[in-house]
């Protein structure tokens, strides 16, 4: 085995306990921009905001926000807690209980995904900032390439009630690459 | 596996899609007859040839339209519903009570 640590080789981390939230509507982009978030230019793209919040655009008018590790998602949690429906056509989509959130990282991410997903997720076809809403291990999953120069990394968002099954399916696919589950504390430091 | 081109997500396995029925123009519910409305809601033309249909991409819950040949099963093109629905439809309740 190589000298890489598990996160750099092949690791699965359960981020489900961190805050995440969605917004949708014709005024959602305007509202999010005014609130200080950077937004992707096109559907099925994602951008990282300065504070570490990841914003994925799922359609012309829908956004999925993943909390930052630096504040453990507190900014998004307070965004959701303080939400009041106003005149604007911008609607809150609670995502905490609908989606589970996993992070698959390491140099084998594309090879692992190739075993359980029909879409080409290799770096040349699915570069950093890409989003794929597709079928993974027979579940509907949102795949976000949130990698960096140092670390290849996918976020996987699936039906929360199916987390136990999905985690087992991904870990099974990771087996041949020496993949292991890693505790969230290793990211939070 | 058959591949369908989703207007939002690109080419995907056909197993990622759900068929949503024939595309039909809705008669005005305020002025049409009960027979016209029942025809719109319940009946299908079931044509042999190129038809317009609703399809949904499951993973993104995105509904779109497709033109498909029902004999050869060839998908001719897929497109966003905005191409057809380009203005808001207002629904008004019946002014008199329904018998």
Can you walk me through this structure?
The complex is a heterodimer of chains A (189) and B (99). Chain A has 189 residues and is of the alpha+beta class. Chain A has 2 domains: 6-15 and 98-188, Gyrase A, domain 2 (2-Layer Sandwich); 20-94, Alpha-Beta Plaits, CATH 3.30.70. Chain A is built from 6 helices and 11 strands. In chain A, the strands form 2 sheets. Chain A has a 6-stranded mixed sheet with strand order 8-9-10-7-1-11. In chain A, strands 3-4-5-2-6 form a 5-stranded antiparallel sheet, covered by helices on one side. The radius of gyration of chain A is 16 Å and the shape is globular. By secondary structure, chain B is mainly β. Chain B has one domain: Folate-binding fold, CATH 3.30.2270.10. Chain B is 9% helix and 35% strand. Chain B is built from 1 helix and 6 strands; from the N terminus they run βββαβββ. In chain B, strands 3-4-5-6 form a 4-stranded antiparallel sheet, with no helix packed on it. In chain B, strand 1 and strand 2 (10-13) form a beta hairpin. Chain B is globular and about 50 Å long. The chains are: A alpha+beta (189), B mainly beta (99). The interface between A and B is medium-sized, with 13 and 12 residues.
Quick summary:
Chain B: This is Sarcosine oxidase subunit delta. Chain A has 189 residues and is of the alpha+beta class. Chain A has helices at 6-9, 28-34, 74-81, 109-116, 163-174, 185-188; strands at 11-14, 20-24, 45-48, 54-57, 62-66, 91-94, 99-105, 131-136, 139-145, 153-159, 180-182.
Keywords, separated by commas or semicolons:
heterodimer; A: 189 residues; alpha+beta; Gyrase A, domain 2; Alpha-Beta Plaits; 2 domains; 5-stranded antiparallel β-sheet; 6 helices; 23% helix; 30% strand; globular; B: 99 residues; mainly beta; Folate-binding fold; 4-stranded antiparallel β-sheet; two-stranded antiparallel ribbon; 35% strand; SoxG (chain A); Sarcosine oxidase (chain A); TrmE/GcvT-like (chain A)
């Amino acid at each position: 085995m190589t000298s890489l640590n598990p996160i750099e080789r092949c690791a699965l981390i359960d981020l489900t306990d961190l805050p995440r939230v969605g917004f949708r509507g014709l005024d959602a982009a305007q509202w999010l921009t005014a609130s200080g978030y950077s937004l992707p230019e096109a559907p099925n793209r994602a951008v990282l905001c300065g504070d570490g919040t990841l914003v994925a655009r799922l359609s012309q008018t829908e956004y999925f926000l993943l909390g930052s590790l630096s504040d453990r998602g507190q900014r998004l949690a307070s965004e959701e807690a303080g939400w009041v429906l106003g005149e604007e056509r911008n609607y809150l989509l609670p995502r905490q209980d609908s989606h589970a959130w996993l992070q698959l990282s390491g140099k084998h991410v594309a090879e692992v995904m190739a075993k359980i997903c029909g879409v080409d997720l290799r770096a040349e076809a699915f570069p950093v900032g890409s989003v794929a809403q597709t079928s993974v291990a027979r579940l509907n999953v949102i795949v976000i390439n949130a990698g960096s120069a140092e670390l290849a990394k996918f976020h996987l968002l699936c039906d929360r009630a199916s987390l136990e099954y999905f985690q087992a399916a991904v870990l099974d696919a990771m087996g041949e690459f020496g993949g292991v589950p890693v505790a969230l504390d290793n990211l939070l430091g | 596996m058959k591949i369908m081109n989703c207007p939002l997500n690109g080419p995907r396995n056909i197993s990622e899609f759900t068929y949503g029925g024939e595309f039909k123009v809705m008669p005005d519910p305020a002025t049409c007859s009960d027979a016209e409305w029942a025809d719109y809601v319940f009946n299908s033309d079931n044509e042999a040839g190129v038809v317009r249909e609703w399809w949904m991409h499951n993973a993104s819950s995105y509904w779109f339209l497709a033109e498909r040949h029902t004999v050869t099963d060839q998908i001719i093109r897929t497109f966003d519903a905005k191409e057809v629905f380009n203005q808001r439809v207002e629904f008004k309740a019946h002014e008199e009570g329904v018998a």
